[in-house]
Please model this.
Amino acid sequence: GAAKLVVVVAIFLLTFYVISQVFEIKMDANLGHIFARSALDAAARSTKPPRYKCGISKACPEKHFAFKMASGAANVVGPKICVEDNILMSGVKNNVGRGINVALVNGRTGEPLDTKFFDMWGGGRCSYCSWLE
Model:
């Protein structure tokens, strides 16, 4: 009885974790905020660090672009490319694939120009991304 309950709870938590990673759900709650005695108490204790573009750890210098690339984890979490707080490629946008994922960005303005992926496991040439050559 107890072992079945532990297995069910573990499966539920694992499923919730995978779903939150796939759909990029971010949780800012913790047990301290959930069980806080008053909203004023919680507001006084919460000090969030500043949020920078693309979720990087510090602000970029002037005349530089903020970018972040994440490779993903097998078939669970897909790759993601973000430039100047604009997500160019991700599993949610359904524009990534296995192999090399490439985003072409204007170096002067930071404007995204094109995104493609090259399936290295499938073999052959990358016929649909001729701008790479």
